[in-house]
Specification:
20 helices; mainly alpha; 2 domains; 71% helix; 438 residues
């Protein structure tokens, strides 16, 4: 009962914030629909909790619980040794035997089975849960309400970033950003995806203000913090965004000309520089990291007897191996699971969304409409963002059940890109001629 009361009280508090702060008053829409979205997100977040409580019952392997449980070790330090707590939260001078012995060895998920040179992204979710425990008193679904609010902030920022490109299609934009089933469901649970959405939306919104010279020091702080949030939650999202954001300045200040070529050059140059800097300065071989990531994922899938492990080519640490694996990676992420491969309700929903995106892509081909220059900019921005996320997901994640969460940040951009290329009038006339609609 205490948990229910706290959930209701915090939900009401955040609803008050949503209705009072101008940021949530969406241009072209207002703030009433977003109030409904927040309530819907809480329902979905609780559904995620129920799924992992009654369907996937192994608490020690459930992402929403294992980092929550580990966070108690960190939270308790705030009262026993507050300096230790501050060091763990900030990550300052905490990577030593003292912290390992007193705290991290008592957690089940601070250390990965296969450690690498890259930052362990699970640390961010443990830290998030440790901070929210000051408000939740250990009741899990209070964390759900907080995550729903933070991810809503990110989605609101994403809507505001995209609105200037899609003013004429504000209803479509609202549905794409807030109501896609995958984003709505997985983005509302106490998972990394909620933090990714928070950082993604705020980063693009604040960056847009900066390049349009409509900002103050608070916007710069938001941009820095949101980038760091993505960097320490899913580093590959940050790496996928950086060249696109830089290229956006180039496109904007040359009157939106030759957009595709500029984005293509930006991606190629950035990735070459990334490889050189990583290898020469940091001693990290990007190709070896990708190959190791795939092997680790395959090993994990075997250890838990995953029923959706795919038979994929083993990725070798070379440019050629990466190139020849890309077609299979894109096919798997775009199309699978198919209906007949779905072994659960969640996988079935994913297969429906995959089919919907394929059908919309076909419509975009047969009922193509060339967008204006500004809209074409966000179409190519979306195209290259989706391609990067889908390729990385397909190369390193050979498990169908994991595809949906890994590609979630790209989902709104995929549907935005495809729907922006469809001539609605042509499609309407064709459906009418076929007597599908009147």
């Amino acid at each position: 009962m205490k948990e229910v009361i706290l959930v209701i009280l915090y939900a009401l508090l955040f609803l008050l914030v949503i209705n009072k702060i101008k940021f949530f008053n969406l241009p072209g829409i207002g703030n009433k629909p977003i109030t409904g979205v927040f309530i819907l997100k809480i329902i979905c977040g609780i559904a995620v909790w129920a799924t992992y409580t009654w369907y996937y019952k192994e608490r020690n392997t459930a992402d929403i619980f294992k980092y929550f449980d580990d966070s108690k070790v960190m939270y308790d330090a705030a009262f026993n040794r507050p300096i230790d707590f501050l060091q763990m939260i900030t990550g300052i001078d905490n990577n030593n035997e003292y912290f390992n012995h007193n705290y991290y060895n008592k957690m089940n998920n601070w250390f990965r089975v296969h450690e690498s040179t890259l930052y362990n992204e699970s640390h961010s979710l443990i830290r998030f849960n440790a901070l929210i425990r000051f408000f939740s008193f250990g009741y899990f679904n209070v964390h759900t309400v907080f995550m729903c609010f933070f991810s809503l902030v990110g989605l609101t920022g994403l809507y505001r970033f995209l609105y200037k490109y899609l003013r004429r299609n504000k209803i479509m934009l609202f549905c794409i950003v807030f109501l896609l089933p995958t984003v709505l469901f997985w983005g509302s649970g106490v998972l990394k995806e909620g933090l990714i959405l928070t950082g993604l939306g705020l980063l693009l919104w604040s960056y847009d203000k900066v390049i349009n010279k409509n900002f103050d020091y608070r916007i710069l702080i938001i941009m820095l913090l949101s980038f760091l949030l993505i960097r320490y939650t899913k580093v590959y999202i940050a790496l996928a965004l950086l060249p696109l954001m830089m290229t956006l300045i180039w496109v904007k200040y040359e009157s939106f000309k030759r957009v595709f070529i500029k984005f293509f050059i930006g991606i190629i140059v950035f990735n070459i520089l990334l490889f050189i800097i990583s290898y020469k300065l940091l001693g990290i071989n990007v190709f070896e990291e990708l190959a190791r990531k795939q092997r680790d994922f395959i090993g994990l899938a075997h250890s838990v007897n995953s029923g959706s492990l795919l038979n994929v080519r083993i990725l070798e640490p070379s440019v050629w191996s990466l190139i020849i694996n890309i077609p299979q990676a894109l096919y798997n992420v775009c199309c699978r699971p198919w209906f007949f491969e779905s072994k659960s309700l969640l996988m079935l929903i994913t297969s429906i969304e995959n089919l919907a995106s394929i059908i919309i892509a076909i419509f975009a081909i047969f009922f193509y409409k060339k967008p204006d220059k500004r809209l074409m900019t966000i179409v190519f921005f979306s195209l290259f963002f989706v391609l990067q996320i889908y390729i990385l997901t397909g190369l390193t994640t050979p498990v169908m059940g994991a595809f949906v969460r890994y590609k979630l940040p790209a989902f709104p951009f995929l549907f935005l890109m495809l729907l922006s290329l469809i001539d609605g009038n042509k499609l309407f006339l064709k459906l009418r001629a076929l007597k599908i609609i009147k």
